[in-house]
């Protein structure tokens, strides 16, 4: 049983498409993070959420605490968005990670 | 200023040897986290420090793993009697505090290969 489930596992999109990646979790959390891992391995923190919605450029993250669900949206996707997107939840003492969504945006 | 620095960037060791991995967090960051990512696998949380204290060590995979942090700064992750299944990228992250609203800053990781 995984505490954090992400879907889809793999996603291929045409440049310009609107993309949604979903994350569901089963534990009580203090915060949820969306991380981006590019080929080569570097990890960047995109968002940290405890409620509501955050927007940064073409990226939007939402969280529904009651439903234990978060979504990451990418508008007007671009090939440089190709990466693995990882959902992570912080329970206050531990982090649990989703297995990641591998996104490929084709020009 | 500098980001989170990890050393070495790559380490190849023979099975049974001990290894020590180092993490230099961003100056002033009180919280420090260790994770690992095995080939083709997701991220796995190992341990976190608030200051020099590690409130929860249950994420460490076995008693061959230990971690310490001194002076509220540099942390070392030590793996004794390495096994092939220890091969992974070991990642460190720091944040200004362990409060939920603190963002994570990741290092580039140490790629450990146990032969």
Describe it for me?
The complex is a heterodimer of chains A (107) and B (115). Chain A has strands at residues 4-7, 10-14, 19-25, 31-37, 43-49, 52-56, 59-64, 69-74, 83-90, 95-97, 101-106. Chain A has 107 residues and is mainly beta. In chain A, a hairpin with a 4-residue loop joins strand 9 (83-90) and strand 10 (95-97). Chain B is mostly beta strands and 115 residues long. Helix content of chain B is 0%, strand content 46%. Chain B is built from no helices and 10 strands. The N and C termini of chain B lie far apart (36 Å). The mean pLDDT of chain B is 90. Classes of the chains: A mainly beta (107), B mainly beta (115). The interface between A and B is medium-sized, with 23 and 25 residues.
Helix content of chain B: under 10%
The residue ranges of chain A in which pLDDT falls below 50 over 5 or more consecutive positions are none
Q: What form of chain B results from the Cα inertia axes?
A: globular
Q: Give the overall average pLDDT of chain B.
A: 90
Total strands of chain A: the figure is 11
Helices and strands of chain B, in order, run as: EEEEEEEEEE
Structural classification of chain B: mainly beta
Find the biggest chain interface. A-B, 23 and 25 residues
Order of secondary-structure elements of chain A: EEEEEEEEEEE
Rg over C-alpha atoms of chain B, rounded to the nearest angstrom? 13 Å
Average per-residue pLDDT of chain A, rounded, comes to: 92
Most strands sheet of chain A: 6 strands, mixed
Poorly predicted ranges of chain B: none
